[in-house]
UniProtKB/TrEMBL annotation, chain A:
The gene is ssuC. The keyword Cell membrane applies. It comes from Microvirga aerophila. Keywords: Cell membrane, Membrane, Transmembrane, Transmembrane helix, Transport. This is ABC transporter permease. It comes from the Bacteria. Belongs to the binding-protein-dependent transport system permease family. GO terms for biological process: transmembrane transport. InterPro entries: MetI-like, MetI-like_sf.
From TrEMBL, chain B:
It comes from Microvirga aerophila. Belongs to the ABC transporter superfamily. This is ABC transporter ATP-binding protein. The lineage of its organism: Bacteria, Pseudomonadati, Pseudomonadota, Alphaproteobacteria, Hyphomicrobiales. Keywords: ATP-binding, Nucleotide-binding, Transport. Pfam families: ABC_tran. Gene3D superfamilies: P-loop containing nucleotide triphosphate hydrolases. It comes from the Bacteria. InterPro entries: AAA+_ATPase, ABC_transporter-like_ATP-bd, ABC_transporter-like_CS, ABC_transporter_ATP-bind, P-loop_NTPase. SMART domains: AAA. GO terms for molecular function: ATP binding; ATP hydrolysis activity. Coiled coil: none annotated.
Length: 248, 275
């Protein structure tokens, strides 16, 4: 068993190594600013309010796209698992679109939805949708028929079996799919803002990069990484709590 | 159902529980041309009797049980109960499976309450009824445990409680003790027989264990290896009250031996079969 603190020692080591690398002069500081310089830049960004304003813009887009994807994805996955014509119609489409990098659609989405929030939200929605659909579908298809039969023999209707047996039994898969979607939402949030935005953390990174203010750029990149990490840990704790029936 | 019908059920013991008429079943094809699992099964299971379906693995005894339960569609023949022809699952024919009997995401109490609520019983009433059945199967203190926290024997007790709680006319049991260790199985068999003595449900109990069938059942249908046919229907003329001591009685041992010889032929032909 690793204690939670011990588990993150490698990250600390990486920071120390990075600092030594910049101090040693092996890497020119304008190529890779040291962690202390970056920390200073981060402080400036926080004090100026720039980071918070842009982060709020970005995270609200990510949340809107992600929530819509989870709602639509679970419904579509369940519908695919239970209704054969819908499965036959949608399955090949899902299979083609799943491995496709959604960021390749950025120019197209820009033409369809313009430069406002909707284009970014739509892109995040699209990217998060497929993992949710696929995992919900697989989870619902894999539900042991003995569970469904037990419920039916206790008097549950088809709709009740879906709601009270298929969904909870598929929940481990559904929650795993949503976790993948959460990671995708961060990736797509930043990459969509690179290309089409006037604000947000992705825009901040690209504009700081363009102007050559690398310490501040690094500061924003690490903030995004930390926020993504925190969101994932929070989600994992939520999922563990939902699935505590699996623990012996 | 009227009160008269309930009265009638509790007194008669020669009435008709389940009529299985000309049932055949094939796997692997929608049109019945795949592997024949059941071949022209005709069997009357009496009301309030404990009936064992005994046969080697793969003889189709579980398939027959699932057909009675209405879980898989009947391809040929009919199965009828007091409620009419079986076309779908229903709470008057409730089942206990060998594995995956309980909902693992619900606690013991929630599992039993679930079945009761499906009968239209209110939350408070359902909970107090559920607690009675938890006491009946001696699981007091484990109301809030999840199935994953219970032993196999305790899980099956809870599953039996959930099924009994909905008060089915017919109790279907699919090798419910098949995954338990020998000692636990023995205890569970005695308890099930005792519970049955009190509740007098029509029970259809699938097993491949000769001693289990003789100990529990009033009548035993011995099934042939695939395709499953009813080879013999044997009356078990043992006392109604059956404790551990009956396992040593000569009539128990003789009957077990006789049935074992009949099953043995089927088991040998099953083990030489293609499956």
């Amino acid at each position: 068993m690793y204690s939670p603190i011990l588990r993150y020692v490698p990250l600390l080591l990486m920071l120390v190594f990075w600092q030594l690398l910049t101090v040693s002069g092996l890497v020119p500081p304008e190529m890779l600013p040291g962690p202390l310089t970056v920390a200073g830049a981060l402080w400036d960004l926080i004090v100026s309010g720039e980071l918070v304003t842009n982060a709020v813009r970005s995270l609200s887009r990510a949340a809107a796209g992600l929530v819509a994807a989870i709602v639509v994805g679970i419904a579509a996955g369940l519908f695919m698992a239970t209704f054969r014509p819908f499965r036959l119609l949608v399955n090949p489409i899902v299979q083609i679109f799943y491995p496709m990098p959604k960021s390749a659609l950025i120019p197209l989405v820009m033409i369809w939805f313009g430069l406002g929030d909707s284009s970014k939200i739509f892109l995040i929605f699209l990217g998060c949708l497929l993992p949710v659909i696929v995992s919900t579908y697989n989870g619902a298809r894999g539900v042991n028929h003995f569970f469904r039969w037990s419920a039916a023999s206790l008097g549950a209707t088809k709709w009740e079996v879906l709601r009270e047996v298929v969904i909870p039994a598929a929940m481990p898969d559904i929650l795993a799919g949503c976790r993948t979607a959460l990671a995708f939402s961060f990736i797509l949030m930043v990459s969509s803002e690179f290309v089409i935005a006037k604000d947000g953390v992705g825009f901040l990174i690209s504009s700081l990069g363009d102007s050559g203010t690398y310490p501040a750029m690094f500061a924003v990149i690490f903030t995004v990484a930390a926020a993504g990490f925190a969101a994932d840990r929070l989600y994992a704790a939520f999922a563990r709590n939902q699935l505590r029936w699996r623990e012996p | 159902m009227t009160m008269a019908a309930i009265q009638d059920r509790s007194h008669a013991d020669s009435g008709t529980g389940i009529v299985i008429d000309g049932v055949s079943h094939s796997y692997g094809s929608r049109h019945g041309s795949g592997v024949l699992a059941l071949d022209n099964i005709n069997l009357d299971i009496r009301e309030n009797e404990f009936h064992a379906l005994l046969g080697p693995s793969g003889c189709g005894k579980s398939t027959l049980l699932y057909l009675i339960g209405g879980f898989i569609p009947i391809q040929q023949g009919t199965i009828a109960t007091r409620k009419g022809k079986v076309t779908a699952p229903g709470p008057e024919r409730s089942i206990v499976f060998q594995n995956f009997a309980l909902f693992p995401w619900k606690t013991v109490l929630q599992n039993i309450v679930y079945g009761l609520k499906k009968q239209g019983i209110g939350a408070a009433e359902a909970e107090s009824r559920a607690r009675e059945f938890i006491n009946l199967v001696q699981l007091k203190g484990f109301e809030n445990a999840y199935p994953s926290q219970l032993s196999g024997g305790m899980q099956q007790r809870a599953a039996i409680a959930r099924t009994l709680a909905v008060d089915p006319e017919i109790l279907l049991m699919d090798e419910p003790f098949g995954a338990l260790d020998a000692q636990t199985r023995r205890v569970m068999q005695e308890e099930l027989r005792a519970i049955w003595q009190r509740s007098r449900k029509t029970v259809v109990f699938v097993t491949h264990d000769v001693h289990e069938a003789v100990f529990l059942a009033d009548r035993i249908s011995i099934m042939s290896a695939r395709p499953g046919r009813i080879q013999h229907v044997i009356d078990v003329n043992l006392p109604q009250d059956r404790g551990e001591e009956i396992l040593e009685r000569p009539e128990f041992l003789e009957l077990s031996e006789r049935i074992w010889r009949l099953v043995r032929e089927q088991a040998i032909s099953a083990s030489r079969g293609e499956h």
